[in-house]
């Protein structure tokens, strides 16, 4: 049974519905990457899972089942016992997520005292242990530091320590490497993956970085304009992307054109997907149709259903699989062989 089972999720605001009919699952111990450009609804989905949507936002449709329980039916008091203990989240920007007037040790200890009933002394001891576990040097001293006294990478590690303090079953990591340099990004992602293995937890990794996906995810869900457009294992997704949007993302990725030492190869401009995600607002059919060179008249009539394909794949595009696609080699970090992307987009 899936640890997290999201079916038909819709998130609404008074004048917008930024997430529609979204479905995906996360199995115990699995890392699932939720991928898409800014504005695709990834972070809103994470906030809905934590029941932390902005004041005017609401879950308008669908169900979210966690460990067999429909969290939408739980009282706020009951869900507070789950949030932080069984489901935890690492937010995008630790400087705004951490309290600037409390030491990091106090903030870690607060979670332990709230959910595990530890004394102040015991919680402080555990906080030091957690700082050591997330590889912060000199944890006995850093436990009394304030967030502004730490580097960006250290603040993100503190956020991870807060999130895993109670050994949750599911960790939601929302762009956990934003604004970090490449070396620190790899260290943070390696840390999260190590904690996943050690604690036996599942990870929902929200990112727009395809290099991260190729290296760390077990399964990938691609979102566009609040809908799932494709789902597959990373190797299958990179080797033969089915949805035109996925192909465009891969073709436009600097990491997909990396040289031997990670540098971007020169000599040709990176292709781009024409238009913007804002063009999907109010569109009755496929949200990507206005940007898609393969679109047919029927694509603008109704949203295409997500259809299962061989190999456990899912794609919401009836057109793309019927077209013969020439391929070009690209490279994704973490993969040993050339990976194909489409030339059919004309990008």
In percent terms, what proportion of residues is strand? 15-25%
What is the 3D shape? globular
Number of DSSP strand runs: 14
Number of domains: 2
* Radius of gyration, in angstroms, nearest whole number: 21 Å
CATH architecture of the largest domain: 3-Layer(aba) Sandwich
* The level-1 CATH class of the largest domain: Alpha Beta
Biggest sheet record = 8 strands, mixed
Percent of residues in helices: 25-40%
Q: Low-confidence runs (pLDDT<50, min 5 residues)?
A: 257-265, 324-347
Q: Assign the CATH superfamily of the largest domain.
A: P-loop containing nucleotide triphosphate hydrolases
Q: Helix and strand string, N-terminal first?
A: EEEHEEHEHHHHHEHEHEEHHEEEE
Strand-pairing-aware structural class: alpha/beta
Q: What is the CA-CA span between the terminal residues?
A: 41 Å
Q: Could you say what the CATH topology of the largest domain is called? A: Rossmann fold
Strands ordered across the widest β-sheet: 6-7-8-3-9-10-12-11
Number of helices: 11
**Mean pLDDT, as a whole number?**
86
